Every structure is written in structure tokens, then in C-alpha cells.
Amino acid sequence: MADGERTAFVDLLRPIADPPVRPDLISLSASATAAASAAVDPPHGSRAEADRLGASLKELADADARIVFVGDPGRTDPRLALPGNAVRTAKYSFLTFIPRNLFEQFRRLAYVYFLAIAVLNQLPQLAVFGRGASVLPLAFVLLVTAVKDAYEDLRRHRSDRVENGRAAAVLDPAGSGQFRPHRWKDLRVGEVIKVLADESIPCDMVLLATSDPTGVAYVQTINLDGESNLKTRYAKQETMSRLPSITAGSVTTLIRCETPNRNIYGFHANLEVDGKRVSLGASNIILRGCELKNTAWAIGVAVYTGNETKVMLNSSGATSKRSRLETHMNRETLLLSAILITLCSAVSICNGIWLAIHRDELELSQYFRKRDYSGGDEKYYNYYGIAMQVFFIFLMAVIVFQIMIPISLYISMELVRLGQAYFMIRDKNLYDESSNSRFQCRALNINEDLGQIRYVFSDKTGTLTENKMVFQCATIRGIDYSEGKDPSPNGSDVYYVVVGDQFWRPKMLVKTDPKLVRLLRSEGETQEGKHARDFFLALAACNTIVPLIVGTPDPKQKLIDYQGESPDEQALVYAAAAYGYVLIERTSGHIVIDVLGDRQRFNVLGLHEFDSIVTGREYLDIIRATETNLHAYSSMGLRTLVVGMRELSRNDFEEWHSDYEKASTALYGRGNSLRAVASRVENNLQILGASGIEDKLQQGVPEAIESLRQAGIRVWVLTGDKQETAISIGYSCKLLTSEMTHIVINSNSEASCRKSLEDAIAISSKFVAISSRAQNTITGTGSVRVPLALIIDGTSLVHILETELEEKLFKIATVCDVVLCCRVAPLQKAGIVALIKKRTEDMTLAIGDGANDVSMIQMADVGIGISGQEGRQAVMASDFAMGQFRFLVPLLLVHGHWNYQRIAYMILYNFYRNAVFVFIMFWYVLYTAYTLTTAITEWSSVLYSVLYTALPTVVVGILDKDLSRRTLLKYPKLYGTGQREERYNLKLFILTMMDAIWQSLVVFFIPYLAYRDTTVDGSSLGDLWTLAVVTLVNIHLAMDVFRWNWITHLSIWGSIAVAVMCVILIDSIWSLPGYWAIYHIMKTGLFWLCLLGIFAAGMIPRFTMKALTEYFMPNDIQISRELEKFGNFNYFTGTEISMSTFSETHPGFIR
Amino acid sequence: MNNVNGSVVGSSSGSGDGSAPRRNSKRPKYSRFTQQELPACKPILTPKWVISVFTLIGVVFVPIGIASLMASNDVVEIVDRYDNVCVPPNMTNDKVAYIQNNETDKSCRRTLEVPKHMSQPIYVYYQLDNFYQNHRRYVKSRNDAQLRKHSQENETSGCDPEKRTKDGAPIVPCGLIAWSLFNDTYIFAIGNKNLTVNKKGISWKSDRDHKFGKDVLPKNFQSGPLIGGGKLDDTKPLSEQEDLIVWMRTAALPTFRKLYGRIEQDLNAGDVITVTLENNYNTYSFSGKKKLVLSTSSWLGGKNDFLGIAYLAVGGLCFFLAVAFTIVYLVKPRKLGDPSYLSWNRNPAGH
């Protein structure tokens, strides 16, 4: 344990138990000069997260453990049929493709409806359409989807093949000690594999040895969780030292590990070498998908292979949510079904009555001819009695009127959402420069929900703040050192380490307090100086940071890059370095710290996870002084951490050491026994001081919150931070303002919670009463009533959530303008989201960046992940991901508004469009003795919603903008349109349907009356109706388009042209009855006059209504559109292009 | 969804493309298209526009309406219903028996007076009421392949129940439509002088050339136990059987006219036309009406006031709306694009 460089020995503890999310800070115990630190500020409730994950991980029992014989795959657990290492991400094989793909596709209800109709049509009695026309659209859609799926699957097959065919060096089981290349797919559990630097790891394996004499290996897990920093993994000394005998097969080594699971941050196992048991944790396993870095080689034994590896278990699909609009749409679809059934019943009943009245005429009337005489038996031809006739007519009516339910809408909606996603992803205002990340649409079916959000639940760290910790100040033994100056990169005050002829300096510069620097460098052994030195030594030593030496253009200068899992730790180590305590080397067994030029080596003996329960023994005045400073720091919004130390006597140390060894190799309850050991040593600590770390607010956060608030969105902040920090951040991001009345609930029993809630309700109702009186007197913009802010902590929430007090909390929380929840655990975050989601119809959005936000992101209607410093778990769970909090404003106010407006209009329009067509057919049916003849050719009725009118609605659904980005950002209140569901509701649906009926009447009856008693034939009139309805619905769309660009023009007028061409084409087929009809009718003036009359008469009601409402009952959108066009402000004179940049147009958003 | 799924898998098990160069920026390339800033026109219904649109429609529609009415007025039309009057009085109780009896004399004489000068060509139509030529059973009962080519004469699918004879020989032309061919005939005379009715070119040329074959001769036609209508000349190819071609262009509506022929000479007001007709066609079994129509035509077709009235109505309504909107705009003006109309500016209490 003793080392050569220094007489004193330092024992640090390194992590044993799987750090579930991460050990945010490590508390440590030490003897001699080492320090023990205790964090006071638990960042983002990671402890609770740890418990949650820990609980889900059952302690390892032999029964369900997997036993792996190292180097002997043959003996490895014959009980289990272990899969090879071949992975299979492809869904289909050559044989299963057709059945499985069809099965997948027919899980959509719409396709089943399609199929049912097509099948009905195949019955000879019901054959309304020809075989081709009835099956073709479905077949087409199925084929296109199948080809798309097949292509995707082919790519997956190909990548699987590449992946499975890669080579890995596997130990020859014969005992030669040689490594031979094997293909990845042939690897088996128990085989010993060697991985070289920069190679990918082929399967999950336990490290046996690495090129580093101490057994350290560094891996990059970017493919696994997106984190780019290096993680340290360790091979056990027991296996390192016996490597030759293990590889030669002379020592039986076996590993007992848990069965495969998805937890990439946990691993429970133990290793038996020569009968000696050693425990293994997450730090001893390297996972498939990672890459070995900065390590020449590593040898490990495969424990999980193929689809059992953690990365494969985690590669599940995206969450599927259904948008609110779609739910509403389904309600209207039901209504439409009712209309459809009514129409069908009406036709079939009328048909029955007609048959009954004309019963005696059916034998002879030429057009009915009841009997077939050709067989000689005069049997009925296609006549089964009135009752059956009615039944058949009903089914036929369903087939003919099927497009009342706009099946094509489902397909066009998917296309539109895809298009909207394309534009959101490409929007350069949603691109984050610092992390080089674009906006990501992970869920494709809730785009329009972004336009209806009422509640935003935000995480704090990493979401509102950058999660880039910067050391700001420290208090040491009660003395405050916060007079730091910003360092210049080449200034004299920057601390360098001289190594040979090279200068090494920390990559990140930290401001230093000159007083403290002087104190540290003073020669005299003052009490103050000693404490300060201990303080910084503790900061430099007690962590899991790995220093990496990076070259610079100047060969003499190197940078020290501190890589670690916790940004707080990084900040502390950079701070220590700036004060001259530079961590320059870390292996699994020791660290080297350059203390003001003096190189010192410390052995790491053990490491306890961070825990906030630590007892101290201290003079009251120092505690008081430290506490005062702590309060000052946290009210400045700094994250605080108290550092303490304890010297251990040799006896104490021996006792702790044996306990620690025992606990860390325990198979059962390892976590608990380690905690017990830690609490035994982490007491009676001597306070060294405390640090203050600033977590900078992200750019544009206050402005974004202000915009959201104006848009009528309530922003709730849920954080794991302590109350003071949360409040100060609340102030700095303008969430809280000085005129707000704060209601604080900090209770630790149910009774006191109840009381504070009741008080709060009383206060709030009083304020609401005052403000309602005040409304009459005060005028002007902005909120009038006294704003209320609710601040509640996690302890109170424990007593409130999921009890009857929830109701009270809901009541008070919805009255308050701002809600701030501090010290909340991850599950509580989800609970708070559920509190709102369960009780209101309002849409909720959760935004967060860390693993602790996952539950909340999944709970909310819309989950947004910030792809920031904290890995990718939040992103993986989210529906949308972006780089910065402030992007929420353009995302919701601009894209959300547009998407909502577009999809809402598109649904209504599709309903209307198909209804018009169905009603026209229905009117005609009334003149065909209710026999469902269609004048419109079957091809036209199939192509109507697929080709003649499909493209414009998709184009408008993707491209139309009611207002420009600039206006929407200037008037956030315009967002209310979506919140109040103004663009899609039952009233609009009914109005639209009435319009549809009117237009169908016009389209049908103008030609009917004009061509009554003429020689006109069915096909010609059918063509007239086809062209009239296609043009009319396109004109209807054209009238509602807000913005005409060339694509809109092309699609609308192009569609009409395509329809005309198709009608002409269909009438050029000699085998159809309508041959040449269109040419004949187009030559007549009557045809054109009918068309013109239809357009005018069909559109007048809608046009008049539009003109009236837009002028006399203008909504905000309308006014703003006029402002955009006619407003004489400088603001609006710029061209579209110059408006584009968010930060430019909004001076407020420049920092 | 598949997409998303695929990419997740791809990046996690892929060959390290995620760790690949971070240097190349993912910054979206600027283009007006991707930023949704294509130059666009933003129409707004200003009062000027609304009034102009209504006025324009009025200005266009009223003259068209007047022109249509005038055209319709110029058309002289003589309509004579003869189905009831052409049944001998003793047979009125059982018209069906009368019409089905092949022995009785079906000829019937009608006199029509020309009310106004009719200039040639004068179209002769027969009009059937209540005959559902668009009935589903009926309209499908034909085979266009058979009509077109001699070699396809066995192609009778879809022709039920008039497909084949009892001994299985195909009927050409098959199907209910052909079977029910109208077969009343008309002979016109003024005084003693016969009026020639030109029956050439009454059908569409496209039908004669491409739809009805020049080598297709009628075969086994109208040979079943139930006679539906007219018989065809077995020596004339279908392309020359113009009555059939006209008949087989099925009418859109249950009341329809079909062209019988053209009288290519002017008729003067007061002329009395004697029509000698053969009342062969059975409409009595379904109480259908038969009418003989003589009509001139205008640029708009036959006599029909509807379109003229409709245009006048729409045009008039638009003028009215134009005036109404003008008045309302004057009485209750609103400045366009005035931010004070924004809802949150109107009632400052807000929500």
C-alpha cells in the first residue's frame, strides 16, 4: 500500500456497486492526509433513481444465474440453449415475408375495412365494381408499403450480414494459447476474446486482462448511450495475474452472472478462480457496441451473446402515441359511419318499397326482366325476393358509398406528417450549433399535438441550464473566497505542469481567487493553509475523473482533458487543477497528482458511492459560517458541495478495510452492506469547506419562458435541486418575478401537508378575488391579477401524490401561474405530469435531458428530449429531441401551430371532399330505381380520392402557412388557437358537412335539371359530374389556401388537369360503355355553362360566409394576416428571408 | 415507424458510424424551400375583392342567363304523347295483351300542328318516361367485345339473362339493352306530301366506327319466348344499325329522349303534320309513357329554360350580395390589420 514517492499513504475508495445512473459525487474516507467529502447537494435525485433501478434488479441467486466456464464454451451451462452471437435485426426472411408483412399491414383498421369492402365486392350478387377497380387501390397501397418494408428489411439483412461476418480474435480452446480469428456470429458464451484498440466489442464480455498492468480499459459507449466521454472499466487483479494459466486452460475459472437484461448500467456477477470468489460489477463488463479506446488490447470472456446482449435488448422501437386530433377525428369518423349507414339503409329501404310497388311489372318490364328463359326453366335471374334484394342492396350501397369513410386520409396524414417532420428537421432555427445536432422527430404521429400544449414540465439541470459546471467559489473553514477573476488563456495566472520539456495545462480554465492562490502557495504551515491544501487535495483525488493528455499545435504544450461521467466532478477537478492540484494520471490502483509541482502518487483503496447522509463533528461557529456561505451560494443559483475529511487510525483502517472487502464481494445485498460500511466510516467528519459550482443558464431561456407564458402555456419546473437553488434559477430564468406571491409547501407529514394545502387554497382564492375586483380598474396588457407561484418539495409530494390530497394540490397548482417542484424523484416527476393529465383535457409536454426525466417524458402527451451532456436516455424515450430549451418556442409556437392548423384543416377537408362525392352518387341513385348504378365510371370513383384530389391536400397539409414565423413569434398569444381547438371541432365539422351537402346538391341538380328530357347518356352526364366535383373540391381548397407558392399552384391546377386527362383517357377505351362520351359532351355549350354555373352556385355560400366572418368577426389569425399584408410597421416591411433567424429578429433572444 | 425502428437498430449495432467524424456539421443547408419561405402570394378577402368578385359573377352570369333564355325561347318543340291514345278503346283495360298480340294492327294516326316556324334540321325524338335505362340489372347487361368483332361472338359474359338461346347458341347482340330495342316507327306527312326523315347519322360516329363492328351480323336475335322489342335486319352489320347504336347509348335518367331521325326541311307555322305510327313497343307493362317529339335546336340544345333562370338567379344574387356587402362595409367599416382588434387587446383581462 505504501508507495515510493511519499511516506504517507492515501487510500481512496473506488466504485464497487454498480453506479446505476452514475455516482454523482463520491464520498470517500481516507487515512493520513486524505479527506472525506460529503456532498450536500444531490444533483437530480440520482439516489432515488438508483434505488428504483436497484430494486428492480434482484440480488443474484444461484438458481437463475448463468454459469460461464471461462475458455470452455462446451461446459458452459448445458441447461440453457444459448444463442450464438449472430444478431438479427431484420424482421422477415424470404419465406415469411409475405405472410408476416401482410399481417403487420392489416393491423391497421383502415386496411381491414378496405379489404372487407373488396371481399364483399367479389360476391357475384354484389359485384358493384369490376374486380380490378375494387382491388387495385388496396393492392397498390399494400404493394408500395411492402416494397418499402422489403427494402428496409434488405438493408437490415445486409447490415446484419456485415455485422455477423466481422472478425474477432478468439482463444483456441485446444489450449495452445493462440488467438484465432472467428466470425462474430460464431462466438459462443464462455469463449475468451481479445479486442484491440479502436475495435468494436463483439458481445458483452467480462474483462479478464488488459494491456494496462493495473487492468484498466477505456471504452467509448457512444453507440450504446450516445455519451462520448471515455468510461473506465477494470479487469480484476485475480484474473490479470493468472491470465497465462487461464488461457492455457489449466485453471478452472467460472463466472456466475445474472440472466440477460436491459440494464446497461448494471451487472451483477461473481468470479471464481481457484475456488476464490471475487465480485464483479458493471465496471468489469464491456458491452457490445462499445469501442475500446486508449488501451492496446483487452481480453475478456463472452457472457452474453447475440440478441441477449444489452444493446440488442435495448433496441426497441419508438413509442407510439396517438395525437389528440386523431382521437377527435375518430369520433367524427364514427359520425360519418352513421351517415353512411343511414344512406345505405335509405337506399335499400326505398329499393324494397319500389320493388313492392312495381312487383307485378317486374316480369315484363324490359329494364328489369325478372326471368332467364335461356335455360328453358324460366328461373329467376338474379332475383331472390324483396327481403334478400333489400339486403343485397344494403351491402352494395356500402360498397358504392365506402369512401364516405376517407381511408385515403390515413395514408395522406402519414405523408403529411412525414413532410412536416422533414421541415422541422431541416429548420435551421432548431439546429444546435454547440452540439451539432438537428431537431429529431422520433414519433411521427403526434406532430399536431405540438400546437395544443397547455402545460410544459421542464427539468432544470441540462434543460434550462447547460449542465456545464463551472467552479465559481469556495468557502474553506468558513472563509469565503469568491473574488475570482476570469482567466485569460495565456495569462500568467494560468497554472502549468511541467513534464520534461513540455507544459501541460488543463483544457478548461477556471477563475481563481488570488487570495486563495496566495494562501495555497504560502510556505508557512498555517492552519488556514493546511485546510485549503486538504480541501483541494480532496477535490483532486476523490472522484472518478480520467485525465487524457491531448496534443496542441504547439508540440511543447499539451492539454489535460478531464473525462468523467459527472460534470460536477469535472468542474471540481478543473478547479483543483487551476489552484495547482493537477490530476495527471489515473489507473485502477493509483492516481498521480501534481501538487504545485510536486508529483505525488496515491493508492486508491476503495470508493463509496455518494450519499448525502453524513454526520460531522465540528465547532459550531465553523458550521454556522459555512452554512451562511452555503445559503449565499445557493441563492446565487450555485450548486453547493460540502467537503469534509477524517483521519483514520491504522486500527480503524484495518477494520474498515476488511468490512469493505467483505461487503464488496457479497453476493446478496451488496448495495446495502456497502452503504452500511460507508455510514460507519463517514461520520465524525471534519468540515474542510464547501464549493460553489455554477451551472450556466442556457442561452435564451428567460425569453423562451416569457414567450411560452404569453402563449398561455404554463411552465412547471421539476428539479432534483434544493429549494434555494431552484428558486434562484427560477428568478434568473424569469420564471419567478419579484411581484409574485410565493406559496411554499415544505411539509414532512400528511397532516401538515393537508394544512399547508388548505392554507394555500385560502390564500389563492383571496388573491383571485382581489384580482377579479382589480380587473375593472386596471387596464393595459399583461396579467392583471397578482401572480402566484407555488413552490413545493419532494418530501411533501410523497405525502400528496396518489392520496386524496392530490385533488387539493391540483386545485391550487392550476390557480398558480408558476409551479416549482424541488427535490423531486424521477417517479414523482411522472406523478406530477399524471396529476394534470388525469384531471384535465389539456395537453402536457415534458422536456428533460437525463435518465431521471425518462418517466416524465413517457408520461406526458408529448415528450421532448434534450440531447445534451447527460447521455441519450431521455432522447431515446422522447418523441422529439432537440439541442436547446429555447427551441421549444419555435417548435411549439411556429411548427406546432402550423402543424395543428394544417392537419386540422386537412382532416375536415378530406371528410368534406369524400362526402360531396358520396352525396352526388346518392342523389343519382334516387333516379335509378334505387339500384346503385353510378353514372361516374368506376375508375373515376376509385381514382377520385387517390389521384384526382389527393395531392393538393397533402401539399397544403405540408406547406401552407396561415401566418409567418415572425408573426407567430411576435404574438405568442396566437398559439391559443390550438389550445382552444379552434381549427377542428364538432361545430366546424357540422358546418363543413352542410357545405358538402349543399355543394353536392348543386353539382348533381344543375346538370340534372339542365339535361332533363334530353338525349344525354349516362356516361356523358357522369363525366360532367366527375369533372364538376373534382374541380369544385379543388376550388374549395384553393379558396382556403393561405399562401400560394408555385408548388401549391402546381398541385391544385395540376390535379384538375390530371383529372381531365384521366377522364379523357378512360373515355378513349372502346370496351367501356362511355367510349368517346367526353369528346361529345365537351363540344356542347351546355356542358361548359353547367360547369360554370356549378362553380359559382357551389361556392357562393362558402365565399359569402368567409367574407362575412373574416371582416365582421375576425379572429386573431385573420387580424394578424392582415397585419402581415397591410401593417405599416417597419417590422413587416422586411422580406421573408431576413425574418428567418430567430435570434436576429428577436433582439431579446440575443444574450 | 419502421423507419424509426430501423435507424435505432442501425446506429446501435452498426459499425461505428455514430462515432464517425463529428466534424462534418449537420447544420441544415439553407434554402427557401426547407425553411418554408418560398415566395408566395397571400390573398386576403378585402372588401374590394369581395365586391369585385360578386359584381364580376353578376356581370358574367346575367347576360349568359338572358342569352340562354332567348335560345331556349327560339326553340320550337312539339311533344305528343301517344301511348294511351293509340290503344283501341276496347283494349284499354288490358293494354299489355294488346301490345303483346302480334295479330292486331298497331298502326295509329296522329295529327300535330306546327305552332311556329321551324327551320331545318328538325329533330325527331321519341321520349320514354319511367323507363329505367340506368337500372343496374339493365345497364350492365351488354358485352362490348361481342359488339365489336365477329370473332368475339361467343363472348357473352355479363349479358345475363339474355345471353344464349335455349340450345346454347350465342345471341348477337346479347344482353338486355339490345333485346329491349325500341321499335315504334313514325311516318310524317303534310297533307299528301310525305316528309322524308333522314335516319342516317343519328348515332355517334365514334360508336359506328369503333364500337359496333362492320363484320358483326345479328344472330339468334329476339328469338326467345319473351320479345323485348325490335328485331334487327340479319343482313346488315351492327355498325349500320343506327337505331340500335342510339338505343345502346343508355340514357342517364329514367325520362329520356332518343334521336329517331331528322326532317331536313323547314316547317311553317300552322302546318298540320300527320303522323302514321306503328305502336309496337311495350311500355304498358311498367306504365311508361311514350311521346313523339319534334324539335328544332339552338346553340344550347333543346328547349329548357332552367339554365337561363339559374344563371339569372345566381347573377342576380351576386349583384344583390355585392350591393349588400358594399352597404355593410360602409355602415360598419373596420380597418384591416388593426392590432387593436386582436382578442387580447380587446379585453385586456385576457384569459
From TrEMBL, chain A:
Cofactor: Mg(2+)
Binding site for Mg(2+): D459, T461, D849, D853
Active site: D459
Pfam families for this protein: PhoLip_ATPase_C, PhoLip_ATPase_N
UniProt key word Transmembrane: yes
Every P-type ATPase N-terminal domain range: 82-132
Taxonomic lineage from the root: Eukaryota, Viridiplantae, Streptophyta, Embryophyta, Tracheophyta
Molecular function as annotated in GO: ATP binding; ATP hydrolysis activity; ATPase-coupled intramembrane lipid transporter activity; magnesium ion binding
Similarity comment: Belongs to the cation transport ATPase (P-type) (TC 3.A.3) family. Type IV subfamily.
Protein name (record): Phospholipid-transporting ATPase
Topology in the lipid bilayer: Multi-pass membrane protein
A biological-process GO annotation: phospholipid translocation
Coiled coil: none
GO cellular component, one term: plasma membrane
Location (main, coarse): membrane
EC number of this enzyme: 7.6.2.1
Enzyme class, UniProt record, top EC level: translocase
Species, as recorded: Musa balbisiana (Banana)
Residue stretches spanning the membrane: 109-127, 133-151, 334-357, 386-411, 911-930, 942-959, 988-1010, 1022-1038, 1050-1070, 1076-1100
Domain of life, source organism: Eukaryota
Record PROSITE patterns: ATPASE_E1_E2
UniProt keyword list: ATP-binding, Magnesium, Membrane, Metal-binding, Nucleotide-binding, Translocase, Transmembrane, Transmembrane helix
Subcellular location: Membrane
Protein residues bound to ATP: D459, K460, T461, E569, F610, R639, T719, G720, D721, R823, K829, N852, D853
Gene3D superfamilies: Calcium-transporting ATPase, cytoplasmic domain N, Calcium-transporting ATPase, cytoplasmic transduction domain A, HAD superfamily/HAD-like
UniProtKB/TrEMBL annotation, chain B:
UniProt feature, compositional bias: Low complexity: 1-14
Signal peptide: none
Keyword flag Transmembrane: yes
Disordered: region residues: 1-32, 143-165
Family, similarity comment: Belongs to the CDC50/LEM3 family.
Localization (cell): Membrane
Membrane topology: Multi-pass membrane protein
Membrane-spanning parts: 49-71, 306-331
Chief site of localization: membrane
Superkingdom to which the source organism belongs: Eukaryota
Protein name (Swiss-Prot/TrEMBL): ALA-interacting subunit
Organism, as annotated: Musa balbisiana
Biased composition (Basic and acidic residues): 143-153
Entry keyword rRNA-binding: no
Keyword list, A-Z: Membrane, Transmembrane, Transmembrane helix
GO cellular component, one term: Golgi apparatus
